[in-house]
Amino acid sequence: MAELEGNDAFIDTNKLIFGIGQVQQITGVSGRQLRYWEEQGYIQSISQKKGAAREYSMHTLFFIFHVTRFLRSGFTLQAAVDRAKKFDRQLPVLREFLRSQLKGVDFDKDQSVLDFGYVDSSHTQRIYGVVKDGETFFRIENVD
DNA sequence: TTTCTGACA
DNA sequence: TGTCAGAA
């Protein structure tokens, strides 16, 4: 089982800035909408002063992307934003859990196996997450 | 050329 | 929300 490398970031994602034109191309949201959403307080641009060109953080870009997904699902703008915010709060938790609990990933011919380590402190069982044929499920195995 | 604000449909 | 005008 290969060990997972440390998660030290090589790129400071906080320095990845996007202009409104780039956001339009990437998310498909029009500049008119982006300005309106900001005016309504749904999104924020980096220090939006006077007539200066707006700049968006990568985090905001992701947020906008998620809002559009919920909009396509039929939610109102307000509801889509609420959903996106909720999703945003979940990400750090998911990342923390995976970073600390995922021990490694094995790739077999017909399946991928995620090693989540021991089930408890007794270290008698190990739990795996399996991805096979488009399905996902857990598997617990006794440790020799 | 791109973006900004304001305004009209 | 799209689009247009006039100004950075």
From TrEMBL:
Domain HTH merR-type: start-end pairs: 18-87
GO molecular function: DNA binding
One example of a Gene Ontology biological process annotation: regulation of DNA-templated transcription
A Pfam family reported for this protein in Swiss-Prot or TrEMBL: MerR_1
SMART domains: HTH_MERR
InterPro entries listed in its UniProt record: DNA-bd_dom_put_sf, MerR-type_HTH_dom
Name of the protein described by the UniProt record: MerR family transcriptional regulator
Name of the gene encoding the protein in the UniProt record: merR_2
